[in-house]
Amino acid sequence: MPLIGMVTRLVAHKGLDLVKYVLDELLQSDVQMVVLGSGDWQYESFFREMQEKYPDRFCYCSGFVPELARKIYAACDIFLMPSKSEPCGLSQMVACRYGALPVVRETGGLKDSIHDCGDGSGNGFTFQTYNANDMLYAIHRALGAYANKADWPGLVERPRGAFLTPYKSPKILDFTGFSGISLLVNSRPKPANFSWFFAFLLAGY
Fold first, then answer.
1. 3-state SS class at 63
2. Are 110 and 8 in contact (CB under 8 A)?
3. Spatial distance between the Cα atoms of 70 and 98, rounded to a whole number of angstroms
């Protein structure tokens, strides 16, 4: 079962209104999702309610813990960034290096760094308008690609090299807590069930 991840501040310009609008529908699919972040009360409250409603499909972790963030990057298959505005953006590049394909809205730095796989050479899945159904369609395209087991590994490998240069400094390589980022990338844990992964998350939380 594919895992979608978000590591973000819970504020409106991060596109969380779009997530709120379609999350119920998304979780009816064969998918799991984890969100790490803190911010506006309305979003924190919503994600807590969704965790109670879908305990085997959705996990919300409040706050920001770097070790937990790294585990989410490493374990998820798809990384969601539906931002209303994003002048630069770093998370989408981190996700690519960890082997999680980004689904992003085409704005600011997200548009500059992530290009849709529909052209056969992209490094993620994108949508243009700030619309929840457009976002959901992009997610389903990513889920469809995930279901193609023959092609998915190639899609995952394609973007890893694109952002190698920003990660060459020893300070950033130490970000993983290992001798190099590839050590974690090449042994990404894939949860067999969500309860196991929930325990995996809490192990470093």
1. coil
2. no
3. 9
Report pLDDT digits (tens) over 57-80. Answer: 999 999 988 889 999 999 999 999
- The single-letter DSSP state of residue 76 is -
Q: Which of 117, 100, 131, 136 is nearest to 4 (CA)?
A: 100
The values of phi and psi at residue 57, to 5°, are -125, -25
Q: What residues contact residue 122 under an 8 Å CB cut-off, 6+ apart?
A: 114, 115, 116, 158
pTM for this predicted structure: 0.80
How many Å apart are CA 12 and CA 23, to the nearest integer?
16
Q: Are 161 and 22 in contact (CB under 8 A)?
A: no
Which of 88, 107, 90, 89 minimizes the C-alpha distance to 98?
90
Question: What is the per-residue pLDDT across 131-160, written as a single tens digit (0 to 9) for each?
Answer: 999 999 999 999 999 999 888 888 888 776
